[in-house]
Amino acid sequence: MRDPIQYEAIVADSADFNMASDKTTGQWLRAIAASKKNGRFLELGTGTGLSACWILDGMDAGSTLLTLDNDAELVAIAKKHLAHDPRIEFVVEDGAQTLRRLSESGEKFDYIFADTWPGKYHDLDLALDLLNEHAVYLIDDLLPQENWPEGHAPKARKLIDTLNSRESLASVLLNTSTGLMMCTRLPVKN
Hints:
Layout: H1 7-13, H2 23-34, E1 40-44, H3 50-58, E2 64-69, H4 72-82, E3 88-92, H5 95-104, E4 109-114, H6 124-129, E5 131-139, H7 152-165, E6 169-174, E7 180-185
Parallel strand pairs: 1-2, 1-4, 2-3, 4-5
Antiparallel strand pairs: 5-7, 6-7
């Protein structure tokens, strides 16, 4: 299967960024996006836009992507390659602040890719509360990585255990790529 049109150019501009998602993660992102007609998507951790280009590649014309990061220099690379697409909106601010703002305004999403600490390792409940019923929450980097800070492995294990214990989610740990976990918000039982 082909890569997104912007992929190679973003890779070239991302040479100094060592935290980008790999192609296998990108393929998952695209496949899940393709399953959500007229979906509202949220990406936590824009980076240089590699993951966003995969999500956009799977989205239909009626879907939208809100992507955020606190690093304006990285987001500038993403904007250079993706801002021409009217389906994407970029936010540069602290992820926890954005999650609180979205929660307070009652925003809901059909798909969240959490690729940064806010909405993943902290403020997890804020992120999960933004999910519509049947919405997907996807995270990566759950298998040991060279760029992990010391002592990070127990945090990843705790996150996996926390998500697996949520009765409101159907979760699966995928031993692929950097270690993916996909969770789907279950309907509320009456």
